[in-house]
Amino acid sequence: MRPLECKIQSSGWDSPQQFKVAGLADFASGHYHLERMLLDLRSHDAALASDNFRSLPWAGFLVEHPKDAPPGRPWLSLDVVGTSVGQGDVLEIQPRISKAALRYRRGGNGNVLFATERCNSYCVMCSQPPRQVEDDWRVAQLCSLTELIDKDEISLAISGGEPTLLGTGLNRVIETCAKTLPDTAIHVLSNGRRFADADYARTFIDLHPSLSWGVPLYGSHYGLHDYVVQSAGAFAETMRGLYALNAARQRIEIRVVLLRPVVEELKRLSEYLYRNLPFVEHIALMGLEPTGFARAHHKDVWMDPKDMAPVLLDSVEYLARRGLNVSLYNLPLCALPQSLWPYAKRSISDWKQRYLPACQTCSVRNKCAGVFAWVTAEWTSRAISPIKEGMEA
Amino acid sequence: MKFQPRQAFAGNTSYQLLPLRFRRLPWDRERVFVSSMSGEWLITSHDDLTRVVEGQIVPDEALFAELQAKHLLMADQKRSTLAPILSQYRTRKSYLEHGPSLHIFVVSLRCHHTCAYCQVSRQPQANSGYDMPANASLKAVERLFEWPSKTLTVEFQGGEPLLHFGRIRALVEAIEKRNKYENRDIQFVIASTLHDLTDEQLAFMKGHRFQLSTSLDGPEWLHNANRPRPERDSYRRTLEGIERGRKVLGEHAVSALTTLTKRSLEAPEAIVEEYKKQGFHSIFLRPLSPYGFALKTANRNGYPIEDFLRFYAAALDHILAMNRSGYVMEEIYAGLLLSQLLSPFSHGYVDLRSPTGAGLGAVVYDYDGKVYPSDEARMLAAMGDHSFVLGHVDQPISEWLNSPAMAQILQAGVAEALPTCADCAYVSMCGADPVDHYARQHDVIGHRPSSDFCRKQMGMFDHLLERWDKSSLIEKRILESWALRVASRAPQAEAA
């Protein structure tokens, strides 16, 4: 569900710190400095219990009870919520307010480097409403965090807010990833507007071996796009930005959130994408996340996925026939015609995804995106019903 | 911050037109085809177009958004961008980026046929004075690698190139030797009747990724009438060649072209059926070129372009019916033109480009070491008109490009800047052919209202657009699949 935050007890620190929760394998890998690892003593693993092992210069110890820690060394214990924290995860502790937050979950499919709370758009359905705060300090924090992330992590997103508002700070984060995580795919979610300055786009050439950008486009003309992002001139900036990114040899995904007014013009947008941006490597048509600003605009933005079926069919087939790689995100299978199932991905990050009671007997549940954890009745498709065995093709 | 309603983002809605061209639909005079400078288009009523031009349409109309999305008008300048037009234009013209990739080597003018319409001015079989000699061929290989293109198609032509196979073998070996450090992507093609194709020749071709391109004019009676040999066995020998070629090189390595004479125009269905009978899945229906022997025998073999268009319509009906009944058959010329209507991409076809493909997309190395910008230019020279000789294989390519011939081609080589073409709604999808106009009208710029090239192009575009406009979804899918196949082969713009 929510990214984990929990209450802590601790001793030995008074400023915020990031630590990797370590077991024997993490120690043996040699990837991480001992000084940045918390040895996980909750397992009562005999191998970890030897005095010699404990006397290494660990940052501290993750314990169930303070008495489990070696005398005089820093220690941390988590409340009951924290029992899901496992070895390999990265915790950020704030000793003064007795809190810890999970910054990285080993094996999770939705790990995000949160770049900034600021944004230059103000989308009507924003799930992460921006705040105008000075948070450039995140650059250093993220660079430090990447050192603690598993080297074999498959993918990480960099999101916000609008990450490009960090300016060259974003370059620093990505450059650091190139050093610490060269094998990890880095996907930056950006509105692309700052790349209207082609010089800025060029600074990302060859920055990381596997870097790509997810850029939203909501319409084939400024009237619709600028309305959705609530910013006059944004459409022109994003389009110029997309060409600048392509010229800078960047890999691009187009993300289209399926708001009612966007769906109403989706076919034209599909044609526009083929004619104007045929170089993009992926197009994601995405169901709405019913949180943040979306909740205040239910009437304007909500459309039951069931009612999108004809236009989704038409648009997806149009794009796929032209060799464009298209996926459907965040839409439950029962709301889609079966011919679209191959395009539907289990796209919702595990920590905020769930199924509904009706899904219990569904035979395709394990292939289905399910719903966002915070879905309510008014955001639920009337098509939700279990698919019976044998009904699927 | 307060959220604003959609109207708040309409901006300044008094609009300006972007460059557009239109054409009344010949089959429905109330409607018009409207196209942008980079080849986006829509069909709308003439009345609506009038309102658009007079500044009367409003943002609430669906047409307003469509015109904006297709870059036919621009509303608020501060909120709009022309970047997509630039990108589309660059993509459309991406064949310009790397210089000529089609290189035709005429290894011999000798031929064992005596076709009345021959475009090539062939010579009798025994006359080895018309073979490409070794020194000229090696110079040609040097020149070939002076061009920058990463992909090269080397096509061997004649005459009948198989009559001088030793030269082909030597050329291929020289090219591959040099390519060891050039690392170009090279495809060899041989344009031949495939008569007398030997096992040894085939074995060599198999070792060097050859494609075979032959001529099949239709059923036996038609093919033999078009391609006379004393033994009257041209059809049988070509079929044997096709069969042997497929066996050794694979089904897809053999393709066939159709030459359409006056006789052919009576037999559209029979020609298409013959292609199916021989297992082909594509056919290329192109009218006669006015060169070579064809010009001298025009009265006997030639025909008005209207007759060709009638033939083409009947053939296309038959091809579409064949596809609907489950046999895949693609008409190449339709695929090329439809790719320009239905996709943003360019194509590899050199005869339909603007700027022209002559010298910019293709180069011909003749048997005697002379170099031409196109096959048509070579044929003019064979008839005594040397206007389009670029130079000789002894000279570097920069001298060819600086030749008076090239200057003459270039000044008439951009369709968008030619009289009449400049105002044509199809121009962004069409090409310029200065050599053709010179051959037919004795002027590289030419006079469109009386130009057969233009009548053919207009006729084809009108015809295909009318079909598209009227066709069922199934038929649209068939036509679209031809276009998308061409588009998927197109060189894509590296960067926008």
Quick structural gist:
The complex is a heterodimer of chains A (393) and B (496). By secondary structure, chain A is an alpha/beta fold.
Question: In words, what does this structure look like?
Answer:
The complex is a heterodimer of chains A (393) and B (496). Chain A is α/β, with parallel strands linked by helices and 393 residues long. Chain A has helices at residues 24-29, 46-49, 51-54, 137-146, 168-180, 198-202, 222-229, 234-247, 260-264, 266-276, 298-301, 305-321; strands at residues 5-11, 17-22, 37-40, 60-62, 75-78, 90-94, 99-104, 112-114, 155-159, 185-189, 211-216, 251-257, 282-286, 326-329, 353-354, 371-372. Chain A folds into two domains: 5-104, Glucose Oxidase, domain 1 (3-Layer(bba) Sandwich), CATH 3.50.30; 112-379, Alpha-Beta Barrel (TIM Barrel). Chain A is 26% helix and 19% strand. Chain A has a seven-stranded mixed barrel. Chain A has a seven-stranded parallel sheet with strand order 8-9-10-11-12-13-14. Chain A has a two-stranded antiparallel sheet with strand order 15-16. In chain A, helix 4 runs parallel beside helix 5 (168-180) and helix 10 (266-276) packs parallel to helix 12. The mean pLDDT of chain A is 94. Chain B folds into two domains: 18-81, no CATH class; 97-401, Alpha-Beta Barrel (TIM Barrel). Chain B is 41% helix and 15% strand. In chain B, the strands form four sheets. Chain B has a nine-stranded mixed sheet with strand order 12-10-9-8-7-6-14-15-16. In chain B, strands 2-3-4 form a three-stranded antiparallel sheet. At the A-B interface, helix 7, helix 8 and helix 10 of A face helix 2, helix 3 and helix 19 of B. Chain B: Its cofactor is [4Fe-4S] cluster. Chain B: Keywords: Iron, Iron-sulfur, Metal-binding, S-adenosyl-L-methionine. Chain B: It comes from Oleiagrimonas soli.
